[in-house]
Write a structure and sequence with these properties.
Rieske Iron-sulfur Protein, 4-stranded antiparallel β-sheet, 3 helices
Length: about 150
């Protein structure tokens, strides 16, 4: 019979921290102006070919989304979540010329007009309007998206 080895307290502490305390969380981004039932983002701040991330708070939850410009200069708004990976609450990151899912590593190039869904991972589109020099996103629409966060 092999002798019993004492369990290392360090190993137990590490296992407990992984199991209970090291849940990854999506970052918090700048908070856009809110007015008249809408989130307002100045077009001049987001119409530059990049991806710009924002956070609003609804019912104690932080809801992240981003606005990007495609290769034809059109703006698109998306939740910082997808239907498949939202439960991990990791969102996307802006990397080079794409946004990349932090959970499954699926990449979406900013210049593409439409992001074809390859499996269920793709940023969830967020309806918006461009008006009076701003991107307008309905506050009530964002409230309905809280289940993804």
């Amino acid at each position: 019979m092999a002798p019993k080895r004492p369990v290392s307290w360090l190993a137990l502490l590490l296992a407990a921290s992984v199991a209970f305390g090291c849940g990854a969380r999506a970052p918090e981004y700048p908070r856009p102006r809110e007015e008249g039932g809408a989130v307002l983002i100045p077009l001049r701040e987001v119409a530059d070919g990049g991806a710009h991330f924002f956070t609003v708070e609804r019912g104690g939850k932080k809801i992240n989304f981003f606005v990007r410009t495609d290769g034809k200069g059109r703006l698109h708004a998306s939740l910082d979540a997808c239907y498949a990976c939202y439960r991990y609450r990791l969102g996307y990151r802006y990397e080079g010329d794409a946004v990349v899912c932090n959970a499954c590593r699926m990449s979406f190039r900013l210049e593409e007009e439409t992001w074809d869904y390859i499996g269920p991972c793709a940023p969830i589109p967020l309806p918006h309007k461009e008006r009076d020099g701003f991107v307008w996103i309905s506050s009530s629409r964002l409230e309905k998206c809280d289940r993804y966060f």
